[in-house]
Amino acid sequence: MAGLYPVLHEESHQARPADPGAALERALDEARARAVAALEPVMPLLVDLGRVFETAGFELSLVGGPVRDAFLGRRSSDLDFTTDARPDDTVALLRAWGDAYWEIGRDFGTIGARKKDLVVEVTTYRSESYDAASRKPEVSYGDDLVGDLSRRDFTVNAMALRLPSLDFADPHDGLKDLAAGLLRTPGTAEQSFSDDPLRMMRAARFAAQLGLRVAPEITEAMTAMADRIAIVSAERVRVELEKLLVAPDPVAGLRILVETGLAQHVLPELPALQLEIDEHHRHKDVYEHSLTVLEQAMALETDGPDLLLRLAALLHDIGKPRTRRFEEGGGVSFHHHEVVGAKMVAKRLKALRFDNDTVKAVARLTELHLRFHGYGDGEWTDSAVRRYVTDAGPLLPRLHRLTRSDCTTRNVRKARRLSAAYDDLEARIERLREQEELDAVRPDLDGNQIMALLGIGPSRVVGRAYQHLLGLRMDRGPLGAQEAEAELRAWWAQQPESAQAPGTPGSPQG
């Protein structure tokens, strides 16, 4: 371990220009110090694994994200390595070295293993590329580390630490770019994105995740090649989009997707929010509003990044372009955009292969995001509050945050009024929750009790009776068993099925 810092200092110094500037010099020194601290806890196991491969006549290097993150002072629980060993050899070595191993990524040259709490993935030197009609990368193996690094997506990911020697390899000045906050490709951007078009999405993600500035040549290539993203599977696109959205600054990444035209292919509803603003500015910029809502929603998160909330904040108004109408007298309306938007959200998220729970939750939040605004127009009844809570269900905490975030007005008085109204609504919800089982509002009689009281078996009639009692429960609160039975009998007397029943009460079975 003692030799790591000098090696990093000497090799990276040789690759730098003679006078990079005092600020860059300090940034590089700080990065090296962070790397030493970040890697120190796992260094004995890294060196041990390196010796295993060296003894067998193979090279091994820690590579990519774990090296980059070490220079940023971040510790990676999963470590990526690259080697000249072919998968069969890697399997044999990791089987003997680790506590467990797996071959899930073997088709891509990757073998995984675990030793103690350390998880490693070792990949044979390789390159990936797509042909014009392919959705899956073609993998070919290489024979040297420098060649492998030259095929990496970006220079900040094209750094490696050779093991067990701890020699630092940085043939494309990735450390300098990382210190300068710049995202570049090892070769031409066009070649990199041709090899794997998903790298264009990663460029936006790294801007959001690491705060890196995308080099102009990368932006130009992304713009020119945006349509190539269509050959990448929806699942891979979704994963990158998720990582971008939960990053510290997703808005930076989203702007890159829109400005380069990538969003038009992966999330076309987002650039569609850039509605033409008429000269009288009769409505706000929906695109900028949505990005602001996203930022404001993030500020309300309490337990780390909330993907569902962030998706809902970004997409809650995507129904507006389809529902915009210019009214007589100069007004603009977006009637029922929340309903239209909920359907659009579900369709887009399904196309991106999001799981069903995520699709339903984000669509539901989109559908409900305007419900609160009726509260500010007049006092809601307790029934309306109950319905608000019941309709939101477990999404209520997110709906609270989304609704509060949706206020982007510059009118301070209006913003305070809306905030106070929502404070009042939340307080009423808590008061009702103390009085009733508000999180699970149910009728005072269950299905079995309904059937017993009416003398009927399972049927649609039972469902109608249940909904009737639920409506009463919403409107009037808990009734109690005696009053609920009386209400049910009164309802039943008005139903056509009751006249067909032999006896009192009664109804056809089934």
Task: Give an account of the 3D structure.
The protein is 54% helix and 9% strand. The protein has 510 residues and is an alpha+beta fold. The strands form four sheets. The chain has a seven-stranded mixed sheet with strand order 3-4-5-2-1-8-9. Strands 6-7 form a two-stranded antiparallel sheet. The termini are far apart. The N terminus and C terminus are likely disordered.
Map the helices and strands.
Elements lengths: L3 H12 L6 H18 L3 H13 L4 E4 L1 H7 L6 E6 L3 H11 L2 E3 L7 E6 L2 E7 L1 E4 L8 E4 L3 H6 L9 E4 L4 E2 L4 H7 L1 E2 L5 H7 L2 H13 L2 E2 L1 H10 L8 H12 L4 H11 L2 H4 L19 H14 L7 H9 L4 H4 L1 E2 L5 E2 L3 H15 L4 H13 L13 H11 L3 H10 L6 H24 L11 H8 L5 H17 L4 H13 L2 H4 L11
Parallel strand pairs: 2-5, 10-11
Antiparallel strand pairs: 1-2, 1-8, 3-4, 4-5, 6-7, 8-9, 12-13
Helix pairs in contact: 1-2, 2-4, 2-7, 8-10, 9-11, 9-12, 14-15, 14-20, 15-18, 15-20, 17-18, 19-21, 19-23
Pfam families: HD, PolyA_pol, PolyA_pol_RNAbd
Enzyme class: transferase
Cofactor: Mg(2+)
